[in-house]
Amino acid sequence: MAKKSVGDLKGDDLKGKRVFVRVDLNVPLDEHQKITDDTRIRAAVPTIKYLIEHGAKVILCSHLGRPKGVTPKYSLKPLVPRVSELLGVDVEMADDCIGEEVETKVAALPDGGVLLLENVRFHKEEEKNDPEFCKKLASLADLYVNDAFGTAHRAHASTEGVTKFLKPAVAGFLMQKYYSFYDWKKYAICCIFLDLLFSILYHSEECPPSSMQELDYLVGAVGNPTRPFAAIVGGSKVSTKIGVIESLLGKVDLLLLGGGMIFTFYKAQGYSVGSSLVEEDKLELAISLLEKAKSKGVSLLLPSDVVVADKFAADANSMIANMGSWPFGDAMNLQPHGVVVAMDRVVPASSIADGWMGLDIGPDSIKTFSESLDAAKTIIWNGPMGVFEFEKFAAGTDAIAKKLADLSANGVTTIIGGGDSVAAVEKAGLADKMSHISTGGGASLELLEGKPLPGVLALDDA
Ligand SMILES: Nc1ncnc2c1ncn2[C@@H]1O[C@H](COP(=O)(O)OP(=O)(O)O)[C@@H](O)[C@H]1O
Ligand SMILES: O=C(OP(=O)(O)O)[C@H](O)COP(=O)(O)O
């Protein structure tokens, strides 16, 4: 069913109206609270500008990270200068997303003014989709716009529940084309993928509009991919993504797993993973996925080696200054004159000692993964290969980004999805080399799976 779009609202529909806009401003921040990639902010700009230009009072709502209660490091305050700069207006910030102070600030908003609410996930009721909380959010506004594609797979209060109390509830431009094509395109699932792709666009300050030509291109690329079709899945959101793997196995010829994803697979097979990230309740699923890959004839590759660290930190101990004390296959760092100064702690991914955790894929894995991708004609990548935010553990992600950029230059279709994956590719300076860039990781994977997105379903039909 096609959904109503913010573009359908004009004149008196918007002039002087309080509009609650759910956006996905879940951008990566460094330890100084500096934005390291603003792709998601730029992707939200066209919808917000449209509302400003039509004299609406814009109330922006977003989450940032996965806080448990009020957590200063997950405040949205550091985003205010960049959002203001991109919109060309001074954005007001509220200390909360509901309550008296917020109501006062909303009441004081001029036509065309913008208020950014504090992280909606500071209230546990958000993720619980609590009806009373939904009502409080709804009471702030006259109408609702959802442009948070990256969070459309979550049935939370601000993405789904609020629509039961606030109408009209319409789609923003980032999602709009998807809805309009949803009804009649054969490959509807891909259409969303597309939508964002073309709405985001590489190095522009704002999103250029999608075009039919581009849409057709993507429909062909993902709905009916040129084979071999490869997927690369990594990152840390194991529980979100491990279920998607099952459906990917029915679509791809090659599946590469990296990032924090892999240790659940290794532990499930009885290997030692030290203190690496593991989802204990997904061990059986991991085994069944390995078996399914075999029975379907899909090449599922896990990294053979990983770089380990003694803690999850930029300054973690992951090097040995003197040779010979590490029993595994160490990778040597050579100075220009050939002197060995340190060795990465590279170990077999299946035997990580207690007290150590895998934070990147190792050089053998990079080589195997790169070679396996040589035959691919279409590649989807979601989730970094390692903790790329820390220089010591960025090599795997950088190498895969570089590989995809090279393949892209040779005509291979490369699609990158996910906040951190896009940030990693941007950081490597390779975003403009890829075929497509998407704001949603989990959301785009669930679309590929064919799952309906709650944040989409909740919107008014066109
Ligand atoms: N081995 C690992 N252990 C823990 N975290 C990891 C590991 N590899 C990657 N990560 C983390 O995964 C995060 C990104 O995961 P995710 O949110 O699933 O990706 P995306 O945002 O692209 O969808 C990054 O912050 C990265 O540091
Ligand atoms: O970053 C996001 O998703 P992604 O990491 O899959 O791209 C979205 O903001 C959703 O966040 P969530 O996975 O904490 O619900």
From TrEMBL:
One GO location term (cellular component): cytosol
Catalytically driven reaction(s): (2R)-3-phosphoglycerate + ATP = (2R)-3-phospho-glyceroyl phosphate + ADP
Pfam families, per the entry: PGK
Residues at which ATP binds: K241, E389, G418, G419, D420, S421
BP GO annotations: gluconeogenesis; glycolytic process
GO molecular function: ADP binding; ATP binding; phosphoglycerate kinase activity
Binding positions ((2R)-3-phosphoglycerate): R40, R121, R154
Keywords for this protein: ATP-binding, Kinase, Magnesium, Nucleotide-binding, Transferase
Required co-factors: Mg(2+)
Gene3D superfamilies in the record: Phosphoglycerate kinase, N-terminal domain
Keyword ATP-binding (UniProt): yes
Documented EC number(s): 2.7.2.3
Binding site for substrate: D24, L25, N26, H63, L64, G65, R66
InterPro entries: Phosphoglycerate_kinase, Phosphoglycerate_kinase_CS, Phosphoglycerate_kinase_N, Phosphoglycerate_kinase_sf
Subunit note: Monomer.
Family: Belongs to the phosphoglycerate kinase family.
Protein's name in the database: Phosphoglycerate kinase
Organism for this UniProt entry: Zingiber officinale
